[in-house]
């Protein structure tokens, strides 16, 4: 390259880049680019930034700066670029230098699925890493699960204990090699090793021996990137049933891992689902199962879809290939406990579940469940944020740039935390349900881990309004200890705000209407909400509508036993005498303590009123025979109801009326119509479909009417019930048909896994004034 005139004079500049620029091969990319353009200088990591000190002719520097974004590595995301004049760097070449300390970081990369080049290398008998279970390069491999500190260098990962052999060191130091500065670099000579314990333990290939156990119908605990899985042959019904028995997981769907060719035979895979499966995050994707798929019926009882994923580590690729069949891959933990990540813990906790343990000696820095996504209303939507997605930062609207840093602690179920810094929010991975034994300790450890890793010093702590939540109590104590304000945020306000923030809704854009449908959340009036229409912005909301409330007979027991909620709904809609006199209902309530519960409701004893949409789904599922009398996991009844619903069914009626200043959506007519159709022999699919479309029509019409009267152009849809693809699609279609913009979460879970983001932006907005 030649330069003429003033452009040929050498000048020095400093360039700072922010975003996803660590763990994606950005420094090696900068090195190669600078060498290509004949520039000299240095590049290093500094906190969440890459800093380049470079010198050369002006035209070449301009080309260099332009290429930093135009040609960036595929996994990088450059959000900020600044350029300033700087002294001339020392030396005559371009070098990668030691990383420097920085401030708050939101740029650590998630774990990345094995790239095609590494897969090809593993399959090549002549390659040094032939069949090596820990093959990786700059473009793939473990990242967040092995990071112990920043900047992202090998010494700050769980690979620090594996000294590179001369061959790996040569690759690591060669700018032309795809492993140049790949921090997890390893090979059979110097890297982690694999072994099998338990059944068939001994000499020989541990993967081949593990495959033999699986083919015989055994269960193998497999140590992956973010923790252990429990694996069995997904085509053997007895093996699946035994795994359920040992793990005490009677009906909750199990995830399945298969190679791409097998997966395509098992499920209907559209373009969007295929892209998600094969993407860097390699999540579990919910897919419709083919009628002749040879999967055991116990994989996902009563469901039309199964959670499928491709192998995403070299170990998984080798194991799936050795077995030659799809494998169940479910979280390696005991009932109610967090996923196991430590070898010694696995020997203790999983020994009674697994026949053998496929282990390795690379430590796991943090527990990461697999991410889960599904296609709904035209977009892939995150149901669980975990391995492969966390801790990618989320961009907040531009007018949050001056907000104070916030720590938000979420709620009780599907817990996650959120840290904000200016226009960035870092929503953690799924941390579990805080009412489960062991999860609370893991939750507190995650707060300390994220705070230390990202050097976050909160100026505000945000919590849920519910005073009994563990997260609320913990946040209250933490705010007091730090001497910073505590900001309680309404549960449904947080759901609404999370949808607004993800959509880029700015503070100055004004109010929106929110339709928030979930199980239960503590309302601003102290009652239990669950199907609300709100109007407001980030700072404040007011409730303008709701589902007609019913008493939760037996309190928390109503969330586990849907017949209790059905009784309350039918008593309210038809009257007790009519319910008792309906012959078709006698088998539903036979042997149940109906009189006792009604007496409790009359006296207001352990029967709090609630407007819960989740409990409405439970009641309908119970009436239609889709749900058992006692649920074994959250969402079981609602999932079964969606699975049997016809998408084109005519809507059942609801009544909209004013009641105490609120627009009330009354399902009483729904129950009368369902009982009539049930007596006439209507199919479960038609009745479930009519329920879905009726609920969608009622809330869409109500929300659109509120928006029209208030001259508001957008409606936010959030809450765990909107994980239901049929409902979300129907409501979106109805609202958009009335000229309303829909804000619905996609990158953030609509369930309580996204609640911390909403709490964080509400707290930030309130402290911006």
TrEMBL record:
Keyword Lipid metabolism: no
Function description: Involved in the maturation of [NiFe] hydrogenases. Along with HypE, it catalyzes the synthesis of the CN ligands of the active site iron of [NiFe]-hydrogenases. HypF functions as a carbamoyl transferase using carbamoylphosphate as a substrate and transferring the carboxamido moiety in an ATP-dependent reaction to the thiolate of the C-terminal cysteine of HypE yielding a protein-S-carboxamide.
Residue ranges annotated for the YrdC-like domain, each copy included: 204-388
Organism: Xanthobacter agilis
Residue ranges constituting the Acylphosphatase-like domain according to the UniProt record: 12-98
Family: Belongs to the carbamoyltransferase HypF family.
Catalytic activity reported: C-terminal L-cysteinyl-[HypE protein] + carbamoyl phosphate + ATP + H2O = C-terminal S-carboxamide-L-cysteinyl-[HypE protein] + AMP + phosphate + diphosphate + H(+); an acyl phosphate + H2O = a carboxylate + phosphate + H(+)
InterPro entries reported in the protein's UniProt record: Acylphosphatase-like_dom (IPR001792), Acylphosphatase-like_dom_sf (IPR036046), Acylphosphatase_CS (IPR017968), Carbamoyltrans_HypF-like (IPR051060), Carbamoyltransferase_HypF (IPR004421), DHBP_synth_RibB-like_a/b_dom (IPR017945), HypF_C (IPR041440), HypF_C_2 (IPR055128)
Keywords: Hydrolase, Ligase, Metal-binding, Zinc, Zinc-finger
Pathway annotation from the record: Protein modification; [NiFe] hydrogenase maturation
EC numbers, comma separated: 6.2.-.-
Protein name from the UniProt record: Carbamoyltransferase HypF
PANTHER family: CARBAMOYLTRANSFERASE, CARBAMOYLTRANSFERASE HYPF
Active site: 27, 45
Keyword Ligase: yes
Superkingdom classification of source: Bacteria
